[in-house]
Specification:
The chain has 350 residues and is of the alpha/beta class. It is 27% helix and 14% strand. It has a domain of 208 residues: Rossmann fold.
Length: 350
C-alpha cells in the first residue's frame, strides 16, 4: 500500500493580508495560513534552530529569534517597519508554548516563565492594535488551559485579549478532522476588532473529512530509516534528510512484549496501522513506536503524521528535530482557520 501524498501547500500564496506570527516554531502553522491568502511578514520565536528551520524552508526569510517575554510592542513595530515597508499588517497569529498548561504536566509551577507567555501575547497585541488598528488575532493552546487548575488564568487571558480591542470566539478543533493522520485536539481563540467588525460573527471550520486518515496511509511503503550514530549528517541519510531515528536498544523491541497498539507507559505506545496516531508531542524518549513494534518512529515519519509537506526539512540534531516536530501545529489546521477568518472578514472585499 502506498502512502497518501500530502495535498500541496501553496507556500506564500496571496499578498492581500500581511500578518505577524508569534511563537512561530519551525513554520508548519504559518504554511497553512499562507495557503489561505495571508502573507507572513514577520515571524518571531525564541528557539534559534526553529527559526533556522523556518527560514530554510521559506524563501523570504521572515523569521527572527526573539524573546516575546521581554520585547514590547514598540520593539516589534520597529522590527516590522524595517522589514515590511508599506505593508499595513491586518492580524496576529500564534500559539504560546503549551507545556505549562498541558494535562500531562505533573510538575506544574506557577513561576514557570512559560505560564505568563499568553499574557505577554495579549500585551503586545494591544500595542500593535493601537498602532495598526488590526482586523483580527488568533491564539492556540492545549485543552488543558481550560482545566479547573488553569481556569482563573484562562479567564484572565481572555479578559486581556478583550481589553486589547477584540471580540472573542472560542473553539476546539481536532487535526484528524482536517486531513491529518493524528488526533490532536487544541483550543483556539479568534478575536475580531470590536470597532471595525462589531457585528461580524466567526464560525469555526467544520470537519472536512468523515473518514480519518490512518497511520498506514502515511507510513506504509516507506523504506527503513537510518539509525542514529555519531557523526551522521543530513546528507548521509537516504530517502529524506529527516528519515532517521534512535537505535532500538530496549529489550522490549526484541522480546515480544510490544504488540500492536500496546499502550502501557508513555514511552512504549505502539501505533496502529489502521487508526490515526495519538498526539505527536514527545518528551524524553517518548517517540511513538512504529506499528511493526521494532523501533521508534523516524523524525520524517512523525512529520508526515503532523501533516508537513513531503519536501519540508527540519534542521538540527536528532533531539532538536524531535522537539520541533512536537511543537508544530499541523498546516492543515492553519489552512482551515485561515480560510474561515478570510471568509468572515474579506470575502467580497478583496
Amino acid at each position: 500500500m502506498q502512502r497518501q501524498k500530502e495535498k500541496p501547500i501553496q507556500r506564500h500564496a496571496g499578498k492581500k493580508c500581511p500578518v505577524f506570527s508569534f511563537f512561530s516554531g519551525c513554520g508548519a502553522f504559518d504554511l497553512g495560513f499562507a495557503s489561505a491568502g495571508f502573507t507572513i511578514k514577520l515571524a518571531l520565536d525564541l528557539d534559534p534552530l526553529a527559526v533556522k528551520t523556518y527560514n530554510h524552508n521559506n524563501r523570504n526569510k521572515v523569521c527572527h529569534v526573539a524573546d516575546l517575554s521581554v520585547l514590547n510592542g514598540h520593539n516589534i513595530i520597529e522590527k516590522y517597519i524595517q522589514r515590511s515597508v508599506g505593508d499595513m499588517p491586518r492580524g496576529v497569529i500564534g500559539g504560546a508554548p503549551c507545556q505549562t498548561f498541558s494535562s500531562g504536566n505533573v510538575h506544574f509551577r506557577k513561576d514557570d516563565a512559560r505560564h505568563m507567555l499568553p499574557r505577554h501575547y495579549a500585551r503586545i497585541l494591544r500595542a500593535l492594535n493601537l498602532k495598526y488598528d488590526l482586523d483580527f488575532f488568533l491564539f492556540e493552546n492545549v485543552k488543558g488551559i481550560k482545566s479547573i487548575r488553569h481556569r482563573k488564568e484562562y479567564c484572565t487571558i481572555k479578559r486581556l485579549f478583550s481589553r486589547a480591542g477584540f471580540r472573542l470566539f472560542e473553539g476546539e478543533l481536532d487535526a484528524a478532522d482536517f486531513g491529518v493522520a493524528q488526533h490532536r485536539r487544541r483550543v483556539f481563540i479568534v478575536g475580531f476588532n470590536k470597532t471595525k467588525y462589531p457585528d461580524v460573527e466567526f464560525r469555526y471550520p467544520a470537519a472536512i473529512t468523515t473518514t480519518t486518515l490512518t497511520v498506514g496511509s502515511k507510513l506504509k511503503g516507506l523504506p527503513e530509516p537510518l539509525f542514529f550514530r555519531r557523526g551522521v549528517t543530513s546528507t548521509d541519510i537516504p530517502y529524506h534528510p529527516n528519515h532517521w531515528t534512535m537505535y532500538p536498544r530496549s529489550l522490549k523491541f526484541t522480546n515480544g512484549s510490544l504488540t500492536a497498539n500496546h499502550k502501557r507507559g508513555r514511552s512504549f505506545h505502539v501505533l496502529d496501522w489502521e487508526k490515526p496516531s495519538r498526539t505527536v508531542a514527545y518528551g524524553n524518549r517518548e517517540v511513538h513506536i512504529h506499528p511493526n513494534a521494532h523501533r521508534r518512529l523516524s523524525v520524517y515519519e512523525a512529520m508526515l503524521l503532523q501533516g508537513f509537506p513531503d519536501d519540508y526539512e527540519i534542521l538540527g540534531t536528532l533531539s532538536d528535530q524531535i522537539r520541533q516536530v512536537s511543537d508544530a501545529i499541523p498546516p492543515q489546521i492553519g489552512e482551515a482557520l485561515g480560510n474561515a477568518i478570510y471568509a468572515a472578514l474579506y470575502s467580497g472585499n478583496k
